[in-house]
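Researcher: Here's the sequence for the chain we discussed earlier.
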Amino acid sequence: MIKALKKLPLRTVFIVPFVVQLIGTVGLVGYLAFKNGQQDVNELSLKLRQEISDRIAHQLDDFLSIPDQINQINSSAIELGMLNTSNFESTGRYFWKQMQVFDVGYISFGNTQGEFIGVERLENGNLLINEVSRSKPGKLYIYATDKQGNRTKLLGVKDWEPRQEAWYTDAVKAGKPIWSQIYQWEDRPDVISISASYPIYNKTKKISGVLSIDHLLAQMSNFLARLKVSRSGKIFILERNGFLVASSTQERPFRVVNGKAKRIKASDSKYDLIRLTTKYLTDHFDNLSKIDQNQKLDFKIAGQRQFIQLTPWRDRLGLDWLIVVVVPEADFMDKINANNRTTIVLCIAAAIASIIIGIITANSVTKPIIRLNNAAKEIAIGHWEQQVNINREDELGELATSFNQMADQLQAIFQSLSKSEARLAKFFESIPVGVSIHNERGRLEGINQAGIEIIGRDITEIFSQNISSRYQIYIAGTEQLYPTEQLPNIRALKGETVFTEDIEIHRKDGKIIPLEVRSTPVFDESGNVIYAITTFSDISDRKQIEQLRKNYERELEREVNERTKALQKSEERFRRSFEDAAIGVALVALDGRWLKVNPSLCQIVSYSEAELLTMTCPSITHPDDLETDFEYMRQMLAGEIRTYQREKRYLHKLSHVVWVLVSVSLVRDDEEQPLYFIAQIQDISSHKVLEREIALREAQLNAFFASAPIGMLMQNRQLRYVQVNQIMAEINGVPVASHIGKTMGEILPDLAAVVEPIHQQVLDTGKPILNVEISGEVPQLPGILRHWLVSYFPIFDPEGQPSYLGVVVVEISDRKQAQITLQKHLAVIEAATEGIAILDQNSQYTYLNKAHVTIFGYSDASELIGKTWKELYYPEEISRLERDVFPILLEQKRWRGEATAKKKDGTTFAEEVSLTLTERGELICVCRDISQRKQAELALQERENMLRTLGDNLDKGVIYQLVREPDGRYHFSYISGGIKRLVGVEPEAIIQDGSLLHNLIVEEDRILNEKLTEESFRNLSAYQMQMRKQTPDAGIQWSQLRSIPRQMDDGRVIWDGIEMDITDIKHIENELQQALISAETANRAKSEFLANMSHEIRTPMNAILGFSHLLQDLVTEPQARFYLNAIASSGKTLLALINDILDLSKIESGKLQLRYEPLNLEALINEIVYIFSQKASEKNLAIIAEIDPNLPPSIIFDEVRLRQILFNVVGNALKFTETGYVQITAKSQTIENAHCKIQLELAIADTGIGIAIEQQERIFDAFIQAEGQSDRKYGGTGLGLAITKRLTEMMGGTIKLESELGKGSTFRFIFPDLSCAASTCNQSPQPELDGNLNQFAPMTILVVDDVQSNRDLIQGYFAETKHTLLMAQDGLEAINMAQIYHPDLILLDLRMPNLDGYQTSLSLKNNPQTQPIPIIIVTAAFEQEQQVSSLCQGFLRKPVTCHELVAQFKKLFPHELPLSNDKITDASPSSNSQTIKNLPELLEKLRQEETQWQFLRQSLITRDIRKFIQRLQDWGTEHQCYLLLDYCQTLQTALETFEIERLYKAIDEFPQIKQTLEEF
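Model: Thanks. This is the structure I predict for it:
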């Protein structure tokens, strides 16, 4: 076959592979595309089936959870009393409304008496109410309903007993919510549904009825039909018994036979795909009930593969269905098969085209190749002159050119070959080693001259068997002939390449020549050996050298062994030096890894050797030192330096810094390649500390020298000043700087002659002269003789030569005073409660204070002076102290601890001892009798034992200790026995394994507990929480725990905690929560009542007070004015009552907010006295203010509420006092250890009627008055004191009542923790500016109010003005009038019929025509201004006054104020020659003041008004604005006279002042 292929023509060889490759490539691509398509189909089908199954499962979850949700809602409504199932009228309507919300078929309820109420949905969406009543049992009445759920007519009656239905009996039997079997309705067999039944129990846990929801499963089929699987794919849902629940086909899951519905199995479906799929599943699983997880299957129908996705679905009420998605593979393969057909056609077309192209191509290629072949054959037979002419420029042309060149080169090569043979023969003869050539028969073809000379004879014979003996060829070093068959040339002819040195030739001249022989076979093209080339050379000299080398090696080996032993000893010494080195030594890899470390290094950083070998040097280096380390390493590796030494910082294992001195060198190999670093590490932390101490001491010395209270100086050997302190300079009377570098003769020539010889003597002799007493005066204090002690001492250099002189001058003028002070110190020591004693070097007492003597039971110190300390201890304790204490004392120079001492009478006691060993060897002992403390510790231990006993016997509580180890592990070290009663686990088991308790905690609470524990660990702060545990027996258990951490010296953290079972409390809390809901409902009702009350009372009050105000100027007859004033007074009284009730409501609901600011209490009390002084004068009463002179000028308090308290109490005092006085007292007491904190006490005392003891508690209740007021002589509502008490408590104070019937009462207010304010309130004069409604440009005003009297009142206010009023009585009328008349302003009431103020305002704001019109809300309702701020530009609460209207107008129409007032006219730009300095700056200040002005209008706080006046007065003076100064005078006058109406009016004129100034 192969030979036949070799004989194929070149043209065929060119064409056939090309065609075969092309067809194969196209076919392979088509095949791979087909397989990839099949794989994509499988993946697409799998994803599609999975997605659809998930969507169906989610739909089932949502669809079938609705009935259970409705049942739970209805059950909760019944339990909370919101749904009364005994009232079928309301229950039917309730179910009817639910049917409007939820898409279900039936909602019903049946009780144990056979009663039934239900609502049914028809196919057209209409709802029917079905009822079986107690009066007509067994009869089902069916009613039609209207759109409100009311029964309209009776549609029919039929016999029916609900308690016999499966939805009722199954639920009663199960005793829990369940699903029914799928069924058809009795009267509508075409409806398939499923019922969710929910049993209802009464408070005695007995069943009272069953709730039921019918769900129509046709909706599920509709949903499945809407899902797009594939062209012929199907979806269906099965029960485990094989019955169909729903499918994506038009087939119903039942058949109606003789008017009755009969469900069908999926295996009986009329759709082949559903039927055969079900049959396959039944055969495959044997029983559908065995399927408990998702399945992905495939099977074939008529040879076509089908993909199946099988998903089990279950819910908590017992439903257990299968979701089946089946998709034929053919639905996805149509396009793939079409692509396959296209691929086959393309393959055939490509094959034909390739054959034609191949023939053409082969002809153009093979013809030139044939010519080249013929020419090559001619050359092969020796015809060298062949040339081929092919005129082409492609590769064949280049091949022809190359062929011609090759022919020319072959000819030249053949000619030079003969020359080469001659040169080769010459070369062969000149080779310096012997060379022989043997042919395949072993005949010698040639040998060169060097070979003949080595052998010593001519060789012409053919090799024979005795060649070794003939040519005397021996095995080297022996007398044994070399085996002929092992000779190298013989082995080379067998195909081996041989090299050997074991041959010797014994020549005839007696020489023995050792040879090195190499034999190499030469092969022909067939692999046969045709020659053996052998080279051999005389190696006599090399053999001699080798012998010498062997001798040398033996000697060297001996020396190596000796040196190895020495090296081993050296290595052992190095190892010992490495391990025992006092400093750290380490080998460090080039990448920073520790290769070897010694124990000293481990001790320096506290890491073990194993730990360090897993770390790197940079990992324990301080981050600030890394950059320098890396730079040194770079220099060493680069060869710039060989070693370096530096100080650096290591990070100790315990996280502190260790200073080390590091010496590093780099070890390199013989080729100078770096191997590793050797580091020597010396701990210099103590040196660093010493350096810092030296620097510190030097700084301290300099500081001491500079600040020492004695004179000090230093001179060099030339007696020139080197250093002088200030004291010395003052003694000399010359500045410090004037001393330096000079001699005493230069600055103190009179003194130099006496002192310099002494200085020179000390320097010459090197001996000090100490304590020379001198006297004199200092220049600063002439005439005063002072005394000093002067010491002169030499300062030696390192060679021991005196190089400097030191002089210390100590003033001793105050020595006597120092002696007195010393005596005082000794008295303090004597009076100390601790025993203090001093022992000399022989351990004998030299001093004992009185306390020491008393502690040990002695009467006088002389009894112990001269005796040793052992006198006071028994031998056992002496031995312990000498063994355990004295070594520490000698090393550390101090010791503190406890000992058992002996008194004089022989009794023992526990003492706490502190021992200090001085440099002179004296021992200072301080001791204290701690017997009582020891007894307390024992008592504490007993209490701890008692606490553990208590913990073990806590009925519903646990005491525990939780420990966190330094490595982060947690465990219980103790837990009391109560834990078993709580969770059923033994305490010992929890101590062994804390997870037994930890795992019982509900996951959410467990996460929170872990978080709080970690926060407590980080902050060492206590924490507490409530948590739930899931116990095996008791279910969910609530507990409250509190735990306090302690940090131990060993790094552990211990939490001491207590945990209490609060499950019962939680149940009570739930009950309280329900009660709270009820209370909040009642509170909302109360708030709504107050809002309505406020509105209904304020509405007529608006007319009463308003018309009373209008009549003041019209009524002049005295009797009529008396009546009018009575009306106004009664109206204000009623308005105050409303405000009191609203305040009380705010306090009780927690909505009243306090505002704390600096308050001048004295000014406030004086203001109260002034206000009530007129009323007191009318009753001939004295009103007195007694204010503590130590009272701070300003405190932080809520002025508004304090004013309200004082008004109530002082007003009551005046009301109930007929003779005598009312006194207000204010006292303060500074709180110790608190910065600027006081306790304030206010008292209001009167000499009135007094209050009986039994009434004194009741009068603080709302609407309660003391008995004896039933005759209404004094009036009142009983709210004042109730509000007063609540306000006092809100501000952290208390109220006390002291009263005696018939003698008077004292109300005492105590505020225990008040802060002083840094600033006080100032007063300044204020101006006045009049205004009225005529100040504004004419406007059209629309008044909207449903009450005629309110409209008349507003009309009365504007009766004498130039404004036009429009009246509307409701919102609809107001909207129409606004659109017609376009008024400038709308005054709008909130609560009106038809369309209220809210809706009216929204409508006006949404209409582009009326949107710009400003609206002022005028209301008597309870709403706050911020609630309606988005609806309006202004807000007024009824009753409305004229000045309130003016104030609102000024805010809305600031640029329309006419300059009618005389003062304003005088200030106008046209008539006033005044020039205001920097008017723009003044206007900007006034604009920024508007926010404060708005607050003043609402609060009227005296202090803030005074500040406001002061600011305006300062600005008026600064800018020379007399208009502003006049306004300040008006404000000041109104404030000082307490004319509230006038003050309101003056404050409201501020915008007009600003507007007037803007027009300058």
